[in-house]
Design goal:
This protein is mainly alpha-helical. It is built from six helices and five strands.
Length: 188
């Protein structure tokens, strides 16, 4: 029994030190070299933090870009999808309601032109980004409410569009919070 117990205990202690001590310290050290120094990259407006780049927020006012819907109500500690399949009746009713709401606030947009991301939740419920098409479909509404030329809003979208990772992986995207801060800075 000692033949097996002692090596097992030694291995347990070694792995406990490595996986509970050294590994977290190494990862925290690497995090210090990332934007935000491992605490998350924040967005500043008028000298105060208004949010985090990687956590979505709810925007529903007509003068702002709307975010992607969230099944978790944008709560970072409860991030989750709805777990409802595309054939689920409740899910389909929710999507229809979101489409109807979008159409009321964006009457110039055709139903078929609404990007799916504006009426469906992401897997985490905290998605901070939209596709450029998801932002562009909202330009007419924002321009009308803010009484500014659509060209200025399109420039905000272009300035905040990030291409695929390394030019290969994933789609182009725009951060909703950064664009809405840029919209508020237009007043200056």
């Amino acid at each position: 029994m000692k033949t097996y117990l002692l090596p097992a205990l030694k291995l347990t202690v070694i792995l406990l030190v490595i996986l509970s001590g050294l590994y977290p310290l190494i990862i925290a050290g690497i995090g210090k070299f990332t934007p935000g120094n491992g605490d998350g990259e924040t967005v500043q407006y008028k000298g105060r933090t208004v949010g985090y780049v990687l956590i979505g927020q709810k925007f529903t006012k007509d003068q702002y870009f709307w975010s992607r819907p969230s099944a978790a109500n944008y709560q970072a500690d409860a991030g989750a999808g709805s777990n409802k399949g595309p054939a689920n009746e409740d899910y389909l009713k929710g999507v229809e309601k979101l489409i109807d709401t979008f159409m009321v606030h964006n009457p110039t947009v055709k139903r078929a032109d609404i990007p799916a991301e504006l009426v469906t939740s992401s897997g985490s419920g905290l998605d901070p980004d939209l596709s450029p098409a998801g932002a562009e479909v909202q330009v007419a509404r924002i321009a009308k409410v803010r009484n500014i030329p659509a060209v200025q809003i399109e420039k905000i979208i272009a300035d905040n569009t990030e291409g695929p990772l390394l030019g290969l992986f994933g789609p182009s995207k725009v951060n909703v919070l950064k664009m809405n801060v840029a919209l508020d800075e237009l007043k200056k």
